[in-house]
Amino acid sequence: MRETDWAPARLIEGTLVARPGFSARAPAGLGRTLVSGDLAAALAALAPGAPVLGLYEPAPKTAHALRIARDRALVVTPAPIGAEDGWRDGWCATTVDDGWATIEVEGDGAPSVLMQGCAADLAAGSPSAAVLFAGFRVLLARTPGGFSLHVERPWLEALSTWLDGA
Question: Is-above-0.70 flag for pTM?
C-alpha cells in the first residue's frame, strides 16, 4: 500500500465511532501523568484523595489513578496538572498528556463490545487495570454508561479501527 492510499486519521478528540447501540469518543482536555515509585506520596502531591483503581473498577469523573504495576500508575485528571517531570521524595512523575489517549465506549451495546475485545475475567478483578483489549495493552475502567480504555496514543487509530468494526 502506498502512503497516499492510507485513510485519513480520525479526530484525536471527539467522536471516533458511532454505531447503532454504542459510541466511542475521546474526551477532550484530560490530564495524564505517569507516576512510578511511592504511589501514595505521588498521589498526595499530585491529586490528593484520588483513588487508585484496579481492573474494571468504577472511575470517577474526578482525579483517579489507574494502577499499571505494583509501583506504577497513570493519574487521570479532569485537566492537565502540569507536574514537573522527574524524581523527588521516592517517586517520579512524567507528564503524558499527549502520550496517552482515553476512549469512552457507551451505550446499550457497550457490554457486547467489551466481551468481543477482552477475554479477561473482569468479575475476578485485579489490582492492575492493565489488560489486553483487541490485542492492545490498555488500562480498563468502568464508567456509568459503559467503560473507558486508556491507551498509548500511537495505538489510538488502530484501536479506533477495531472499534469501528465491532
Answer: yes
Whether residue 5 is predicted with pLDDT greater than 70 in this model: the reply is no
C-alpha cell of 5?
Answer: 492510499
Count of beta carbons in the 10 Å neighbourhood of residue 24: 25
**pLDDT tens digits, residue range 52-97?**
999 999 999 999 999 999 999 999 999 999 999 999 999 999 999 9
Please report the pLDDT score of residue 4 as a whole number: 63
Cα(130)–Cα(126) distance, integer angstroms: 9
Classify domain 18-166 at the CATH topology level.
Gyrase A; domain 2 (3.30.1360)
Cell readout for 39 is 504511589
* Helix, strand, coil percent values for the chain (each to nearest 5): 20, 40, 40
The whole-angstrom separation of Cα 95 and Cα 112 is 33
CB-side exposure of 6: number of CA atoms within 13 Å?
Answer: 8
Amino acid occupying residue 97: D
Closest CA to 49 of 15, 77, 30, 87: 77
Cell of 17: 465511532
Mean pLDDT, all residues of the chain? 92
Domain boundaries, the chain: 18-166
3-state secondary structure of 160: helix
